[in-house]
Structures are given as structure tokens and as C-alpha cells.
Write a structure and sequence with these properties.
alpha/beta, VC0802-like, Rossmann fold, seven-stranded mixed sheet, six-stranded mixed sheet, 8 helices, globular, binds S-adenosylmethionine, Ribosomal RNA methyltransferase FtsJ domain-containing protein, RNA_MeTrfase_FtsJ_dom
């Protein structure tokens, strides 16, 4: 069984619609245990070849560990790993509850600690999530204390990579920064974490629709050379630090390529498809991060057009709603 995690219970019905569309399956083929913010679909569903914009995280091909003591459950997990011949693995353990959603404290923390100890004893090293060669385990403790566990060897991990979150159950919070000119700055911070690729010193970045400057602020703080495009200027203190151009971001063009092209422009989703068409070519940018903004709840089916487009690009792409997104989904890519 594959588990899919929407942002919360409110988003469950939209993710269900997306899943029905994406895999041409019926509502009755998707279950959701006890109203949890989780969808379960048949393991034969070709998840590895798909993008799901409204799934924050997935647990592919899960096995079930029955309820029991933490010691017993940890031993059962280690036995499964021994069978899978894994000598190193990254792992995430979380609980899921009707009331609180994803929780990483309490029982999940205890199981994580026990697992760490047992794995060490067996000589299985802990790896880091973003090492693509590293196998990955995601374990979700259900309210009845049974566990759904996904064990992905190196090959499977790479096949599902674009759908896997670096955060347990996809859930994280981004630390606030009172100096940032807008709360929107958090989107670019979380996007980098999800991409596993950060804006580096002296890299070039163009920020389309940049005012009041949250994203430019993040890039400047990371040492990038920033070009900011908006009809309105950024917050005053940022203006001398960026190369600002007051123009229509959709008409902006240069001969130079950029390390990063990012956009948080308020516009209809089809215009973001245009931006992908313009910018997502290897000569023009190494990485892109664009926000797709929705009005209301009846236009998520345009995500299908994004998926089609992403399959044709020479980029490792991620289409995903972030924790910090409201009625938005991010589309991101890193040149292969
Ligand atoms: C949500 S705000 C961006 C917030 C910014 N990312 C931040 O962190 O502060 C969207 C911006 O897009 C700009 N915008 C909308 N359409 C535009 C266009 N065609 N060309 C340039 N800027 C545009 C708006 O002026 C607005 O400042």
C-alpha cells in the first residue's frame, strides 16, 4: 500500500481528486483511515512515474508492523532491514493523529531512539536524507500503535525521490525572521530544503515579482548576486544591494543565464507555465522555483498540465505544496 500525506485534513479531498485524475482510479479505491490526514492507495498504482502537487510526502510500498512495545517494534524493523541487505539508511519516524496531524515527539521519538540504538548494534549506519545513494525508511505510527513502514533501497529511493519529503510526514516549520520584509521569505527557505540544493555565495539569481523583497532578502543573505524585477521597488534598504529593474517580469529577458530563476508573481497558473517554457532550459537557468497561485478551489486540475510539462524537461523536478504555502503549489527544478 502507498500512503499519501496532504497538508492537513482540509486538503485531503483535493488530494483525493488529484489522485483520481492522475491514476484514473475511483474514489472507492482510495481509503482514509479514521479521518486521518492520510490517503491509502493500492501499491500497484504507478506512483513512481507521477507527480502529485498536493501530497507533502509519500510512504511508498508500506509494510505493516503490528502494535506492540517499542522494543518489539524496533526489533521487527531491524529484522526487515536485515532481510533487505541495507548497510546504511536515512530514517524518519512520526506519529499521525486525527487531532494534531504529524507529530514527531512522544512515542515516535522513543521509537526513533530505540531504532538508532538497534541499527548501530547491527552495524547499519545512519545516512542523510539528501544523499541520493542512501536507502531511506519512513515509518508512520497510526493511532492504534501499528506502524506503516516504507523501506526504500537505493534504486527505489531514486525512483520515488521527487515525491519524498526531507521532513517526517512532510511537516516542518520555518523559523521566523523579523527583519525579513515579508512572511513570503519562508517559501524560498522551505523550497531550498525540499530541493536539497541551496543558493550559494556568488551564484546569480533573478527574482521575478520581487516586491517587497522577501525572496531577494533570502538570496542576498546567502551571498547571491540578485536581480529583482517588479513594477514596484523593494523595501528601501534592499534597493542598493540588488540590481533592480522596474518592468513586466514576463517580458524580462537577458543574454545571460542564471544559477537561479525564482518567481512569486501573483498571476494565473497558465502564466507560470509560460515562465517554465521561457526559463527552464539548461542555458538559461540551473535551478528554478516558481509559485503557482490558485483562486478558490476549482482550478487544481491545471496541475495536470504542469505534470505533462515537467516530464519533458531536462531537470529533476518537484511539484509540491509546501507547509508555508496557502492556496499555492510550488514548481521547482534542478538541471540534471
Ligand atoms: C506575492 S508578491 C511577491 C512577494 C515576494 N516574493 C516577497 O517575498 O516579498 C507578488 C509581486 O508580483 C508583482 N507582479 C505581479 N505581476 C507582475 C508582472 N507582470 N511583472 C512584475 N511584477 C509583477 C507584484 O507587484 C507583487 O509585488
Amino acid at each position: 500500500m502507498h500512503l499519501l500525506m496532504p497538508k492537513d485534513n482540509t486538503w485531503k479531498k483535493f488530494l483525493r481528486d488529484e489522485v483520481m485524475d492522475e491514476f484514473s482510479i475511483k474514489k472507492s479505491q482510495i481509503t482514509s483511515p479514521d479521518g486521518l490526514p492520510i490517503l491509502e492507495i493500492d501499491e500497484k498504482t504507478p506512483l513512481r512515474k507521477s507527480y502529485l502537487g498536493l501530497a507533502l510526502d509519500i510512504l511508498p510500498e508500506t509494510q505493516t508492523i503490528p502494535a506492540g512495545s517499542i522494543g518489539e517494534q524496533s526489533s521487527l524493523i531491524v529484522n526487515l532491514l536485515k532481510k533487505s541487505n541495507i548497510s546504511q539508511t536515512a530514517y524518519q519516524v512520526f506519529s499521525i493523529s486525527n487531532k494534531y496531524g504529524v507529530v514527531t515527539s512522544g512515542r515516535s521519538e522513543l521509537l526513533s531512539q530505540k531504532l538508532a540504538k538497534n541499527l548501530r548494534k547491527e552495524g547499519i549506519k545512519r545516512g542523510k536524507f539528501h544523499f541520493k545513494d542512501c536507502p531511506l525508511i519512513k515509518a508512520c505510527i497510526y493511532p492504534d500503535r501499528s506502524i506503516k513502514i516504507s523501506i526504500l533501497d537505493k534504486v527505489k529511493r531514486q525512483e520515488y525521490d521527487h515525491l519524498l519529503s526531507p521532513f517526517p510526514g512532510g511537516y516542518t516549520t520555518i523559523t521566523d525572521d523579523k527583519q525579513a520584509p515579508s512572511r513570503a521569505f519562508k517559501k524560498l527557505v522551505e523550497a531550498q530544503l525540499v530541493l536539497g540544493n541551496e543558493i550559494k555565495e556568488d551564484e546569480t539569481l533573478v527574482d521575478l515579482g520581487a516586491c517587497p523583497g522577501g525572496w531577494s532578502y533570502v538570496a542576498l543573505n546567502q551571498g547571491a548576486q540578485v536581480t529583482s524585477i517588479d513594477r514596484s521597488p523593494l523595501r528601501e534598504d534592499l534597493m542598493p544591494k540588488v540590481n533592480f529593474s522596474a518592468e513586466d517580469a514576463f517580458k524580462f529577458m537577458t543574454e545571460d543565464g542564471f544559477d537561479w530563476v525564482v518567481s512569486d508573481i501573483i498571476c494565473t497558473p497558465d502564466r507560470i507555465l509560460e515562465l517554465i517554457e521561457t526559463w527552464a532550459t539548461p542555458q538559461k537557468c540551473k535551478n528554478f522555483v516558481f509559485t503557482i497561485k490558485f483562486k478558490g478551489s476549482d482550478s487544481y486540475d491545471i496541475l495536470q498540465s504542469f505534470k505533462k510539462k515537467l516530464h519533458s524537461l531536462d531537470y529533476d523536478c518537484i511539484l509540491r505544496q509546501l507547509n508555508v504555502n496557502k492556496n499555492e503549489v510550488m514548481v521547482m527544478g534542478t538541471r540534471i
